[in-house]
Amino acid sequence: MRAMLEPGEGRPLPQGFEDIQRQELSRLFGRMADIRLIAFVPAALALAGALAVAEPARWRAAFLFAVLVPLAGLFAAETLRFRRSGLSRGAVTVNLLAAVVGQVALAFATGALESPFTYTFVPLAVMIGLFASPGAGRALVATQVAAVWALAGLELSRRFPGLNLALFGGGPRAGHVDAHLLASATVLSLVLALASRAGRAVRGVFDGMLREALRAREESLRAHAERAEELTALSAEIAHELKNPLASVKGLAALLADGAAPGKPAERLAVLRREVDRMQGVLEEFLNFSRPLVPLAERAVDLALLAEDVAALHEGLARQRGVRIEVRGGQAEARCDERKVKQILINLLQNALEASPAGAAIELWVLPPADGAVSLHVLDRGPGLDPALSGRAFEPGITSKARGSGLGLTIARALARQHGGEVELAPREGGGCAAVLRLPAPAPAAREALA
């Protein structure tokens, strides 16, 4: 798809420009439609009713009712359609054209060019400049100008004796000097053209401000992204450099532990080795987070077998904590990168193990395809989501663990989204937390191939 270019500049429009412009025009159109339905339609129908009572010329009220009642119905239908489905394509042009027709009919029935309602042509011309596209705007303003001269010609012909309102003296004309009428038509035509241009200029100023604001936002985001990339690369380099000294410290601690006397020296060396292991784990998580996501190596994977494999890996740790791991559900297959999905499940299961009290059970439910996705639920009976962190659980560095890095869930969600899936956390009924991994279900043909 070819990118939209800025008028006269040849540069592509900033991302999101058309969407924001459409939203703002839709909002303004909605206000216009509401005001028109609440104020203009009742006032016009009331005017027609008053003329039916006060005017001796019966054609006038009949004409107004014949024009205004269908227009009122159109305006009501357009307002309801806007509230139901938003601003549709072409709705602006249709509504502005209907407004032009209504104004011309109202002016014709109340004195033609000398009607007091001809002044309403000017604000409508401004609205045409604001809302309509350039081509449609020129056509609508040309229609207004043509109507002005048609009304002037009707008055000049003096062939319509009841054209003027009885309130203004009746007859074909309110005035008597043809030159004045021609001058009024000329001036009004120029004012309509200028009003439309003014509306178009206001629209241009708005579009220009929106473009500049979006371009400034893009520049700010680009600079931020570049800075973040630099900091991430620097941090990853520092973390990588720290791994070697830590490995040396761990090796030396192991050598010292072999010859250490029982008691406090051996205990202190054991603490040292555990802390080194923890630091290495934090650094490894950070390096996983800072690395760009490598391309997926997808193949057919049985999620039930993968869940059983992950459960078996944690059997020893679960026994130490006095927790059971149970794999439930049926067979569910997905086309995914097995190594990365396994990493997601390991992260979710380790979180569940750390949260579960002794004697509890962690359930891994593998569910068949539904709504275009296969899902695997990791259910625990821990304290559940911290309300203070529930909305930020996937942000880097956010954790409820005393020794957590706050990167595990961030990495898990990034890997899931790389597959087109998602990781979600929710409170579990009866207490605890439900971590849900969703992956796109294979197409029916792909499922047959997997079978």
TrEMBL record:
Residues 237-443 form the Histidine kinase domain. Its EC number is 2.7.13.3. SMART domains: HATPase_c (SM00387), HisKA (SM00388). The keyword tRNA processing does not apply. GO terms for molecular function: phosphorelay sensor kinase activity. Keywords: Kinase, Membrane, Phosphoprotein, Transferase, Transmembrane, Transmembrane helix, Two-component regulatory system. SUPFAM superfamilies: ATPase domain of HSP90 chaperone/DNA topoisomerase II/histidine kinase, Homodimeric domain of signal transducing histidine kinase. PROSITE patterns: HIS_KIN. The keyword Transferase applies. Pfam families: HATPase_c, HisKA. It catalyses: ATP + protein L-histidine = ADP + protein N-phospho-L-histidine. The chain crosses the membrane at residues 35-53, 59-80, 92-110. This is histidine kinase.
